[in-house]
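Please check the following.

. . .
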Amino acid sequence: IRGPCERPGEDEERDKERVSGAGRVAGLREAEEGPDSDSDLETAGTPGSGELARDTLYLRSCRAHGVVPASCFLRQGNTPELNLRHRGLGPQGARALAPTLASIPYVKRLDLRDNGLRGAGAKALAGALSKTSSICDVDLSENQLGAAGAQALCAGLSGNQSVQKLWLAGNGLEEQAARYLAELLLAHTGLKFLDLSYNQLNEQAGETLAPALAENTGLTELNLSWNHLRGPGAVAFARALEANIFLKVLDVSHNGFGDPGASAVGEALKTNNVLEELNMSNNRISAAGAQSLGLGLRVNQTLRILVVTRNPVRTEGCFGLLKAVRDNPASALELLDVSDVQVNREFDDLAGSLRVTLPGLCIKTGARRAEPKKESPPGFRPSLSASVPK
């Protein structure tokens, strides 16, 4: 007997859902226990057979490696992104997942951020990634990969040109890992995007990566922010931009380039005709370094965005950058970001004139204008009553 609030056919729909759900669970259980016949082959072409085979393979692999299956994996469905971030998979979970990656050709993006994979987990995934041609975007950030994980991953990806985006932020990568990354940049011409931010790539790492960056023939976006590139390593890395003809977006913010690195970047901008976006914020660049950087802006014709915030460039440095843009009639600059620097009226006047000649240029400066201190008139002395509290 149908209840007063039920619609006609509602009970039939529930019965169908129960039957289909029971059939799916029974199918998974039967496949996991090992049927007498080749049921996986017999179910080919039936609705949901590919998803059933994928889940079955994953459950078997989890049982073999002694790990609890990730329920979110079974709920993913046939989506182009496999998102398992923050799931605590660990090395064993990565070993259980690796065999399944080859059975899901519809997945384009693999997100395993923050899973404690370490070097062993990276090695297991590298073997699987070297065999798949569908995954083009891999995020392994915050997994404590270290040099061992970087070595395994770079070796696995060197022979697979399908991966175009690779995220390795926050993995404790140091000087030794830079050698494997340099080999990847030379071998993997299909890689377009690489995120190495929040690591410990130091001066020696910069010298190691520089030749690979100069010869790389595919990378268009590189993020090296929040590392330790400084000294000769920063200079060598900056000089590599002179030879690179593919990189369009570079983020080296929160490093230690200093004035020598800024000067090297300025020299590179004189010949580089590809780079469009450059972020050099928080790099200990003084007014002198900013003026050296401006020498490149005087002739460069491709750079559209330049960010130099959180540097002690003062008004003199900002004025030097703006003068360089004014003296370059072919400048493509659309954004000059010095938003934390307090500028004076002379800078404002120059910026106002540039708004007429370059109406597409946006200049971000500090909220307050730095005005010269007013001198007290001769013979003026403040009264004691004003300074002594009552």
